Amino acid sequence: MDLNVSPPLTENRGSSESAADGPRRGMSKTQILTLISMASVNFSSMICYSILGPFFPNEAVKKGASQTVVGQIFGCYAVCNLIGALVLGKYIVQIGAKFMLIAGLFVSSGCTIMFGLLDKAPAGATFIALCFIVRSLDALGFAAAMTSSFAITAKIFPNNVATVLGSLEIFTGLGLILGPPVGGWFYHSFGYEVPFMLLGCVLLIMVPFNIYVLPSIEADPSNDSFFGLLTQIRVVLICFVIFTLSSGLGFIDATLSLFAMKTFNLTSGYVGLIMLGLSLPYCLASPLIGYFTDKYPVTRNAFTVTGGIITAAGFFLLGPAPFFHISSQLWLLIIMLGLIGFSLGMTAIPTFPEIITCAHEKGLEEGLSTLGMVSGLFGAFWSMGMFYGPIVGSVITQNLSFQWAATVQGSMTFLAAFLLLVHSLCRRHPQRVQEERQSTEESTPLLSG
Fold first, then answer.
1. pLDDT band per the 50, 70, 90 thresholds, residue 305
2. C-alpha–C-alpha distance, residues 146 and 132, integer Å
3. Can you give the pLDDT at residue 417?
4. Distance from C-alpha of 92 to C-alpha of 369, rounded to nearest angstrom
5. Chain centroid offset of residue 209 CA
6. Closest Cα partner for 230 from 211, 243, 216, 220?
7. What kind of fold does domain 9-14+28-219 have according to CATH?
8. Residue 321: which of 415, 407, 412 has the closest Cα?
9. Backbone angles phi, psi at 421, to 5 degrees
10. Nearest Cα to 315, choosing from 392, 385, 247?
11. Separation CA 276–CA 341 (nearest Å)
12. Max alpha carbon distance in the chain (Å)?
């Protein structure tokens, strides 16, 4: 029995439908259903991803895991997500975008439920091994869902990629915001198993829902590879920007709470409220930045560079940096978190459509295969940063200070924005010379006296 509400979209049909939808003010039925599907995926996946923070580390320590091992359990998620994004992005056409998304949701829901049963496992090596296995499988499921989600969104909304992705980031942010307090409340009220069971079942409900509403997309595989994308210096620099952004978020997640508690004598509840200062500006900025950069694509580079510089300034003042000789102030910390959250939206949202543009300029085919590789590349560098940020940031914080760790993170973010700016200026100069030469040749008379 076919549960699809619409017939499969082929590459040609998808392109013609997008072109036809361009002048329309409203969205087609396929686009509306896709938007609902992607929003549900982002929200449910992120809320399940973020529930571990408030209580799992303490439970793991009770089961015989050290703080280092707990960090490795969290870190393996990013590593497996990185590998999964690259492999699944390459073979999205062969696997099928819709099947990949649904299978990813199913795996993630099962792993979330299984995580709720781990407290029944024997303490010690058995518990730790099961944590690594379940967390790794969950990362692969998440990579499948997110990689296919990005590719499907870019395919169904080719002229409004940044707008749609920016709007979907609202649901991503809501999932990240609600996950810790919801998970913590259910944990304190009903015990360890209930948060995972409840949210895992919510994610499981998304499987038949997306089977029904999500359109199928048929496409032909291509011979292009990630190396073809990475031969472009601009793509490499944009990926470096993506890496610095996610590493900054990972650094904040791993170190800010302890710094705020120690420096300002705050409770974990107040730290959670402070973290809203990072998430809410990002959620509010993302759709606005997406809409503006879709309407004026030439501004993508300016937003990425400007946002990167502002993000770097935010990290420099987060501590603040020791060479500023400014003492740590709670009000300054909150303002800088808000600034970083807003500038992250400025920087991150334009990067995905910009890589797509670079891929088409390189000569890669306009289709699901290329979109899958762009999605995989984006997810891989984002995961790489999420792995690097907490580890390196924690090491620097432990051996030096939070202030120096934030300064190093800000310096790396500034370097990425600066290199992208220099490349853009160098790229623009030959284009101007060529345009001036063409205009001169056109204005030169064919016959001279």
1. very high
2. 21
3. 92
4. 7
5. 23
6. 243
7. Growth Hormone; Chain: A; (1.20.1250)
8. 407
9. -65, -45
10. 247
11. 9
12. 97
Task: Give the C-alpha separation, 7 to 107, whole Å.
Answer: 26
**What was the pLDDT predicted at 422?**
92
Of the pLDDT bands very low, low, confident and very high (cuts 50, 70, 90), residue 379 is confident
Nearest to 314 by CA among 327, 332, 290: 332
CB 247 within 8 A of CB 385: yes
User: Percentage of the chain with pLDDT > 70?
Assistant: 85
Q: How far apart are CA 214 and CA 7, in angstroms?
A: 10
Helix (H) or strand (E) holding 118: none
Say if CB 345 and CB 195 are below 8 A apart: no
Contact 164, 18 (CB under 8 A): no
Q: How confident is the model at residue 146 (pLDDT cuts 50, 70, 90)?
A: confident
Asked if residue 244 lies in contact with residue 413, where contact means CB atoms within 8 angstroms, the answer is yes
- For 432, residues 6+ apart whose C-beta sits below 8 A from its C-beta are none
187 contacts: CB under 8 Å, gap ≥ 6? 54, 55, 194, 195
For tokens 């029904």, name the residue.
Answer: 212
Report H helices in 91-124. Answer: 92-95, 97-115
CATH class of 222-430: mainly alpha
Across residues 305-319, what is the average pLDDT? 91
| DSSP designation for 153 | H
CA distance 137 to 199: 17
Helix (H) or strand (E) holding 364: none
Query: Amino acid identity of 344?
Result: L
**Which residues have CB under 8 Å from 85's CB, separation 6+?**
143, 146, 147, 375, 376, 377, 378, 379, 380, 383
Give ranges for CATH 1.20.1250.20 in the chain: 9-14+28-219, 222-430
Concatenate the DSSP letters of all residues of 281-303 into one string: HHHHHHHHHHHHHHHSGGGHHHH
> Token pair of 170, please?
């609202």
Q: What is the mean pLDDT of the chain?
A: 79
Q: What is the pTM of this model?
A: 0.77
Helix %, strand %, coil % for the chain, to 5? 80, 0, 15
3-state secondary structure at position 217? strand
Give Cα 227 to chain centroid, integer Å: 21
How far apart are the C-alpha atoms of 186 and 194, rounded to whole Å? 7
Quote the CA–CA distance of 352 and 375 in Å, as a whole number: 8
